[in-house]
Structure formats: C-alpha cells, structure tokens
Amino acid sequence: MFPRNYWYVAAWDHEVRRQELSRRTICNEPIVFYRREDGAPVALEDRCCHRHMPLSDGNLRGDNVECIYHGLTYDPSGTCIHIPSQKTIPPEARVRSYPVMERYHWVWIWMGDPALADPDKIEDFHWMDDPGWRAKGEKLDLPGNYQLLVDNLLDLTHLQFVHPTTLGTDAIASNPITTEREGDLVRVTRWILDSPPPPFLQKAGGFRPDENIDRWQIIEFTPPGFVRLDVGGARAGTGATEGDRSQGVTMRNLNAITPETDTTTHYFWAQAHNFKLDDPTVTDLVFRQVHTAFLEDLFVIGHQQGNLSAFGDDMPPGVDFNQDAGGLQARRVIERILADEQAGVNLRATA
Ligand code: FES
Ligand SMILES: [Fe+2]
Predict the structure, then answer these.
(1) Nearest CA to ligand 1 atom 3
(2) What Rg value do the Cα atoms of the chain yield, rounded?
(3) How far is 300 from 256, CA to CA, in rounded Å?
(4) CA-to-CA distance for 15 and 255, rounded, in angstroms?
C-alpha cells in the first residue's frame, strides 16, 4: 500500500518522448506514457478496457492511442472514441487517466483522486533548473522497497562503511544527530566539526587531505518519498556553523523516490552545486562521485530486500538505535497517511 494523494516523479522529461508509447509501473499500477502533438505528457492506465491488452503495445494516432488488438481508440482523457465494430460507444468504455505535470525536468504524476491534484503541492526541487545552481542526475532501478532508501538517506552513519572511497570518513558515525519534525517534514542534522575532508569533498571543494573542515549534513524528508540533503564543508572554524559558508562548498543532493512495486523502486536523483557554475567538469565530477556511492547503496538495499523477502513474515523486527530516529519518524508519517487515506480522511484537500 502506498500513499495515493501525492505527486510522484514518474520520469525524467527526456524519457517521455513524442511518437512513442512507454510503459512504467508506479505504485503497482502499469501506466502508459506519451506526449501529445503539442508536447504535453499524457498518462493512461496501460490496459485496454476490452480484453486488457497493454495500450503501450498499440499505436499513437495523433493525440490518441489505438489498441493493437481490436483497434479501440482512446483520447488523452482515457475515453474510448472509436470502436471499429460498432457505432455506439458505451460510457464504461474508458480507462483511467492520471494528472501529469512537468516541472524541474521531471514528469510528475498524481496517483490519487484527480480532483485533489493541485500543482502547488508538487515538492520544491528548484535547484534542478535554478540559474544559481547546476544539477545533474539520473534514474536508478532500486531492487528494494522505497522505504529502505528513505531509511538509508536519513541515517548517514553508513557512509564510512558503505562509501569509504567517496563520501565517508571515520568521524561520521561518532558525531550525534538532532532530529526535528515540522508537520510531516522530518529533519536530521549532523555537524562533523574540525575533521579531515572525505575524498569527495577533497575533489569537489579543493580541500587538502590534511586540512580539517567543518562538515554539515542537513537532511529533510517529506512524504511519500522525497529526501533533500543540504551537504558541504568549509575550512574548520571559519563560521559555517553560524551560517558563513564562504570558506567552503555547498551542494544539494536531491532524491525523488517513487515506488514501482512493493519490492522495487524508481530512484530519481540529482546532485546540485552552487560554485564553479561555469565549469561543467565540476557538475560531472560531483555527479560521478555520488553515482559511485549510490551504486553501493543499491547493492546494500538489494541484499536487505532479498533477506526481507526470504524471511517474509518470520522476520523479527530490527533493533533500533539512536541513529534511526529520522527513519522511524518518516515511517510514522507514512503510517499515519496510509491510515488516514484508508479511513477516507482527506487531509490534502483541506491542507
Ligand atoms: S483488447 Fe483492445 S481492442 Fe480488444
Ligand atoms: Fe549511501
């Protein structure tokens, strides 16, 4: 079960192409994506209402989709507008159409009640196309449940063990976190003061290995699966803790985590930086460093999911530690949303 009344990232803008039908499962629902002749994206249930042939196997006729089996044709609202064998089109001859929006180079989809699909509810990822930043990202196929990745990003004590060649240093796990809640937002903050820079910040920030830095990791989760990290470092003792980051570098690690099925996830992410904007090799460097690290996370989460699936209902609950405070808060937020949606409480409409 997944929260329904939310915008999810469905695709990078370049993944949804003109003159092409593509199938992607989101929250266990197969969906066909395409672009209308004016370029606007369309998302329909990927199932013909007649005999359930995937519409993604069919043909685009202008703005409409023709099923490849017996030729039923649907318009972008999901309404059947042509049945080759008869003139009368019964009202039930339709498939579900999903609200879609393009923003921040992503195609967003609303999985719940279309009447509640307010574009203002799309999460803020302005760093993706803000002229004061440069960002580069990708989609990864995560072989695990989306909440495993939310846990992962809210508990960065794993950096020194999973990512020793990029993001990790020995000092991370021993520095405490603070955890805050603001409504459904969960914020985890960690400062690692006066300690050596990790390989990633040596490369991106130009710090020498023997030059200590004050490093920050400010992680914000919002439901259902968005995690934005404000990360960076500055020369030790130059005022970063009071807000002066002029002697350092700042980046945003941006994550939109979209459930595909209960055990697989579409992982959209990007790394943004606000320094050396005119040097694309820097954008590429920070992307590649994080990409290397995230493949390591995919390995860990895939094996976690393998164990969860293998043990099934016999899996005892994991033991929680202080480091899990953020992840546990995020899970509580999701549990409350699921309970509210089950009970028909329409919080998004009244928010
Ligand atoms: S299954 Fe689509 S027209 Fe028959
Ligand atoms: Fe990681």
Answers:
(1) 70
(2) 23
(3) 19
(4) 17
Residue 13 main-chain phi, psi, to 5 deg = -60, -35
46, 47, 72: which to mutate for ligand 1, most atoms within 8 A of CB? 72
pTM: predicted TM-score of the whole model, two decimal places: 0.95
**CATH 3.90.380.10 residue ranges for the chain:** 124-350
Cα of 300 to ligand 2 centre, how many Å?
9
Q: Is the dihedral of CA 283, 289, 294, 299 positive or negative?
A: positive
- Encode the chain (351 residues) as per-residue pLDDT tens digits: 999 999 999 999 999 999 899 999 999 999 999 999 999 999 999 999 999 999 999 999 999 999 999 999 999 999 999 999 999 999 999 999 999 999 999 999 999 999 999 999 999 999 999 999 999 999 999 999 999 999 999 999 998 899 988 877 777 878 889 999 999 999 999 999 999 998 888 988 889 999 999 999 999 999 999 999 999 999 999 999 999 999 999 999 999 999 999 999 999 999 999 999 999 999 999 999 999 999 999 999 999 999 999 999 999 999 999 999 999 999 999 999 999 999 987 654 444
- In CATH terms, the fold of domain 7-120 is Rieske Iron-sulfur Protein (2.102.10)
φ, ψ at 64 (rounded to 5°): -110, 160
Range(s) within the chain of domains with CATH label 2.102.10.10: 7-120
- Pocket of ligand 1 contains residue 27 by CB under 6 Å: no
Domain range 124-350, its CATH number among 3.90.380.10, 3.40.50.150, 3.30.540.10, 1.20.1560.10 = 3.90.380.10
Q: Quick check: helix, strand or coil at residue 127?
A: helix
